[in-house]
Amino acid sequence: MLARVTIIGRPNVGKSTLFNRIIGKKKGIVHKVSGTTLDRNDYETLWKDKKFIISDTAGWSRDSSLFSKSIFRQIDNAIAVSDLILLVVDGKEGIHSLDFQIAHKIRLSKKKVILVVNKIDTEKEEIKGYEFYELGFENIIFVSANHGRCINDLLNKIWGNIKYDIKEKEASGMLKIIIIGKPNVGKSSFVNAVAGEERSIVHNVSGTTRDSLTVHVQVEDKKYILIDTAGLHRNSKVKNDMEYLSFLSTDYAIDDADIAVLVVDALQGIGDAEVKIARLLIRKKKAVIIAVNKWDLIEKKEETVKYFTEQLRKKMKFMCWADIVFISAKTKQRINKIFQKAEIVFEQFSKKLTQNELKEVIRDVIIRKSYISKGKTLRLKEYLQVASRPPTFVFSVNDIKLVHFSYKRFIENCLRGRFKFHGTPIILRFRKYYRGKLCQY
C-alpha cells in the first residue's frame, strides 16, 4: 500500500494551497471564506522515487456548523490511516489556541508529524515562526505555499519519513472514474457506499460538495480512483465565487478522468440539466456510463426499466452508445456493476482497429450506401485510425463539401455495428484528398 500523508490544521492556514502546490495542480478550492474545504481529498503524487497519497482535510474549527460532526469524523479517520501528518499553522497570524488543541490530538495518535509553518515568504520572516516550537514538535519547516518557498525541502522531509512498498512500482495505473450529475442525485452517497466510509458529506443542502474529491477505493480486488464532484446546474450563470470555483474544479476533473459516470435521479428522470452535462461530456470526448440512482424507491413494474430507458434515449439521442445501469447507492444495489462496466468501457475507449479491420467496414459502407449531391458522388479515398481514447478516424475524400452529417452518422453506425464501441464516443474527421500529399484536417 502507498504511504498516506495527511494535511491537518485550522481554517485558512493554507492547507488547500499547500495541497495544490505539492500535487502541482489546482485541485483543492482556495478561497478566503472560512470552511471552503468540507471533505477529505486524496491525490496520488510522486517525489523522487517514492509515490504517496497526499490528503487535504477540512479546517479544524470550534464552529458548530451543519457539517461539523461529519468533518471531525473525517479528520479522525484521516489521522487514523495516516503514516505521516503535516500540521499546518499560520506563520503570519502566529500561534492560536486551536493549534494547541490540534497538536494534542495528533500527539495522542502517536503518528509521525512535520510541523509546517506556512506564509513565511522570506528567510527573515522565519523568526516569527519560532513561537510554534511551543507546540512540542521537533520536526519543523518554514514555507510559503502561495509562493512555493521551501516546498522542495518539505517534500524531501516527507520522502525521508515514509516507506515505499517496492511492489507498488510494478502496479498498473488505476482507472480514474469521475462521478458527475446535478445536485442531490446521490453522487456522494455512491462514493461513500463504494468506499465503505463517509468520505463525502451527504446532506440535503445543495452545494455540500465543493471540491472535486478524489477517493482511492478497492472493488473485487481491483483498485480505482473515484472523483466526486460538485453538482452542475442547468443554468449557465453562477451565483457566487464559490459556485464558479466548484464548476472550474469539476471541469478540470473531467479532463483528468478516464471514464465519466453520469448519475441520474430515478425519481426526477431526465431533465435539461442532465442533457447539458451529457453535452459537456461529449465536448470533452469522454467515455460515459449512465447510472440511474435511487432505483430502490421506484415501484417495480414489468415495463418500468423499458419505459425509463426509452425516455432517456429519446432525450439524449446524441449519447445512445452509453450503457445504462439502474442502481441504489443507499442499498448498494448493483453498484459493483458500474465497475464491471467501467472495465469494458475503458477497453472500448482504448480500442485500436487494424487497417484490415477498418478496410472491411469501409468496404461494407461503400457497398451499402453511397452519398450523391448535385450529381457528385462522395468517394472515400483513404482512411486510417489515428488515435484511441477516444477512437479517432481520418478519411480522405474527393470533395469535403459532399460530407454530410447523415453520412458521418451512417459510417459511425457501421463501425459500432461491427466493433461495438460501448460507452465511448467515436471521432470522425474528413480532409481533402491530394495524391501524394498529406493535408491538415
What does this structure look like?
Helices cover 32% and strands 22% of the residues. It is α/β, with parallel strands linked by helices and 441 residues long. It folds into 3 domains: 3-170, 3-Layer(aba) Sandwich (Rossmann fold); 175-349, Rossmann fold, CATH 3.40.50.300; 355-432, K homology (KH) domain (GMP Synthetase, Chain A, domain 3), CATH 3.30.300.20. A hairpin with a 2-residue loop joins strand 2 and strand 3. The longest helix has 16 residues, at 241-256. Residues 28-37 and 205-210 have low confidence and may be disordered.
What's the topology here?
Layout: E1 3-8, H1 15-23, E2 41-47, E3 50-56, H2 68-81, E4 84-90, H3 97-109, E5 112-118, E6 140-142, H4 151-161, E7 175-180, H5 187-195, E8 213-219, E9 222-228, H6 241-256, E10 259-265, H7 272-283, E11 287-293, H8 304-315, E12 323-326, H9 335-349, H10 355-368, E13 372-373, E14 376-377, E15 380-387, E16 392-397, H11 405-419, E17 427-432
Parallel strand pairs: 1-3, 1-4, 4-5, 5-6, 7-9, 7-10, 10-11, 11-12, 16-17
Antiparallel strand pairs: 2-3, 8-9, 13-14, 15-16
Helix pairs in contact: 10-11
